[in-house]
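Hey, resending since the last one bounced:
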Amino acid sequence: MGSMYIEGGGSPHPSLARVRRPAARIVCGVTDIIWSPTREYIERANVTRLMRTHGIETYEALVERSIADAEWFWDAVVRDLDIEFFEPYRQVRDISRGVEWATWFRGGRVGGARGPPIDALMSEVHAPPPEPRRPFHAP
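The C-alpha cells again:
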C-alpha cells in the first residue's frame, strides 16, 4: 500500500520528510498515512514557532533535544505558550525521589490563589501506568 494524503495533497512538508519514523506497525491492518499537514498549517503551528524561537531546524532535532533535556523542553513550552503561573515555579522537574516520582514545576501554581499546584496536575498526566492485568482463561 502506498501513502495516502487527505489534506494538502502531495508529499509532506520537507522538514517532516527528514524525520526518521519507526518501522510501520500493523494495527488493525492499517499502515497508510491518512493525513499530512499543509505548508500553511505547519506555518501556523505552535511547534513551528517554538522551533524558530530556539533556532531548531527540524522536528527530529526538537524531539532529540526534548529527550536529552526534558527540563529545557517543558520550560520552553510553558514560556512559548505564555502559560501564566500565579506563583512561579522554582524548578521544572525534581527527580530527587526517583524518576517514577517526578515532581513537575515545583512550587508553581496556576489558576490564581485557588488553583492546584501544577506538579499535582503534571503527576496525573505522567502517572505510572497501571499494573498489567493477567489474561482471563476460562476453565
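The first strand starts at residue 91 and ends at 94.

Sorry for the duplicate.
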